[in-house]
Write a structure and sequence with these properties.
This protein is mainly alpha-helical. Helices cover 67% and strands 0% of the residues. The chain has two domains: 118 residues, no CATH class; 54 residues, no CATH class.
């Protein structure tokens, strides 16, 4: 959360240049996020961005580096995670996405190659184990015995298409009989 507070405080007109520099640094080397700016650059950034200390610059760079490395691996800046997990504001999210669209996509492969995903972090991520499909269809009278069917996805799709065809035929016959009745 502290990192997002720093990011959200950065003036909007100055943030795009910082983001572009971070993207360049990530693509050029496998440097850690605290090595993106030199000590002198951090001091200048503190003045330019009205930050309290070089540690704030490190926090800012760590957050946007993580966002860009994730985007390089997964294809886009993850708005929901940055908003929910880190507390990044809408203005900052928009600027992160804009920087990624302008420059990040072009260097995504370089960033992904130089900054592999952490296997331990991936192991903690939720994994989709299985999916299930359920279709509830009532045909005929409700007083008759109920029947449970288990179908594979392909079988369910075929049944759905057959039911749609039957419904289309019933609709056609209904409209034909209505047309004949109005003509008579």
């Amino acid at each position: 959360m502290e990192r997002a507070v720093v990011l959200n405080r950065v003036p909007r007109d100055k943030l795009p240049r910082v983001l572009a520099h971070v993207l360049d640094a990530l693509a050029a080397s496998s440097a850690r996020s605290d090595d993106v700016f030199s000590a002198d650059e951090k001091k200048q950034l503190c003045e330019m961005l009205a930050l309290a200390s070089p540690a704030d610059v490190d926090a800012l760079v760590a957050l946007v580096s993580r966002a860009f490395v994730d985007a390089a691996h997964f294809g886009a800046v993850n708005r929901d995670a940055l908003r929910a997990r880190d507390g990044v504001g809408e203005d900052s999210l928009a600027l992160l996405e804009k920087a990624w669209r302008k420059k990040g996509r072009a260097v995504a492969q370089q960033i992904a190659a130089r900054h592999p995903l952490d296997a331990a972090e991936l192991a903690k991520a939720p994994v989709l184990a299985e999916t299930n499909w359920r279709l509830h269809v009532e045909l005929g009278q409700s007083s008759t015995e109920k029947l449970d069917l288990e179908l594979s996805h392909d079988e369910l799709l075929a049944l759905f298409q057959q039911l749609n065809a039957i419904q289309a035929e019933l609709d056609r016959r209904s409209s034909d009989s209505a047309t004949r009745a109005s003509a008579a």
